[in-house]
Amino acid sequence: MKKKILVIFTGGTIGSEQSGKSVGLNTSKRKLLLDKYAAERGNGVTFDSLSPINILSENVQKDDLYALYDCVRATDCGKYDGVIVTHGTDTLCFTVNWFSQVLCDFPLPVVFVSALYPLDDGRSNGLKNFCGAVDFIEKAGVKGVFCSFANDGENAKIHLASRLIYPDEVNGFYHSVKGAHFAEIAGGEVVFNPSPDVPSPEEVNANAPEALAPTLCDEVLLITMRSLLNFEMYDFFRSRPLAIVVELSHSGTICTVGDELNFKKFALRCKGLNIPVIIAPVMSAAGVYSSMSELPENVIAARDMTIEMTLVKVMCALGAKKNPAAYLCDNLFFEKL
């Protein structure tokens, strides 16, 4: 039987064209993607398409994400074999992590695709990513939320949406945390990763938790650890966040000595302002450095998940009027490492 896939276009580079040194949206590129697929693979798959939003992903607003969510939720699951969502690369990581939480109960595969360059640029990986998504939907037999992405010189990798991490600087290459992708598309076939760090297709299909409500609160401050990070620059006199998420170093540390650079002093100041501080990544199996002992009680460790997922869970919790730590212990779509 001929496969049928719903393609939801949202804009991004994959839906853009380049004029001189400027890249801008062009709705005709939706047809170009499907035409390129037909030229490459033939007409063995039928596509329907929708476009609830059309933006460059760096400009995404909460209402855009809600509109995209509503569009996917409205899918006639008896009519399609899967859903492909085109998306810009700049905020792809946040969107797919969020969708892994709010669509973890969805009965079809939902695969996000994007492009580092417009489709009419010979360097673009957009068609390769799209072909990988189609192959995965056709042949994997796995439901859930995923991302298909081919870095230069590589096959398209299929990433669990809950484990996609922020892209490499400058080149924009995407990876799964620990470098452990879920599957790879090789010669049009799906090759699942046998790593013990990755759930099996059977485990993914057996996953049936209740999804989070599609709510987000953007009154959250994200601070990324760097050397000589001066916490005195954050005074919160004019605007006070509902929560602060602090990205630690890879070993789970941050400066806790001195005055202006001292995270403990900053956390105590936040405690006086009734602002919870969530730190990540914190791996349960790793040793705890002495610098991270005796933290103030308003500091909450988001254990065994990426910083992007931590941010998603905190924003979802606050959006649902819950404590910012409400969802940090949940494991809805294999986000716990």
Beta content comes to: 15-25%
End-to-end distance, in Å? 38 Å
Helix/strand structural class? alpha/beta
Low-confidence stretches: none
Portion of residues within helices: 10-25%
Supply the number of helical segments. Answer: 7
Q: In which order are the strands of the major sheet placed?
A: 4-1-5-6-7-8-11-12
Oligomeric composition of the shown chains: single chain
What is the H/E string?
Answer: EEEHEHEHEHEEEEEEHEEHEEH
Integer-rounded radius of gyration? 21 Å
Q: Would you count the extended β strands for me? A: 16
Task: Describe the sheet with the most strands.
Answer: 8 strands, mixed
Average pLDDT, all residues = 95
* Approximate shape: globular
What does this structure look like?
- The chain has 337 residues and is an alpha/beta fold.
- Helix content is 23%, strand content 22%.
- Strands 4-1-5-6-7-8-11-12 form an eight-stranded mixed β-sheet, sandwiched between helices. Strands 13-14-15-16 form a four-stranded parallel β-sheet. A two-stranded antiparallel sheet has the order 2-3.
- The protein is globular, with a radius of gyration of 21 Å.
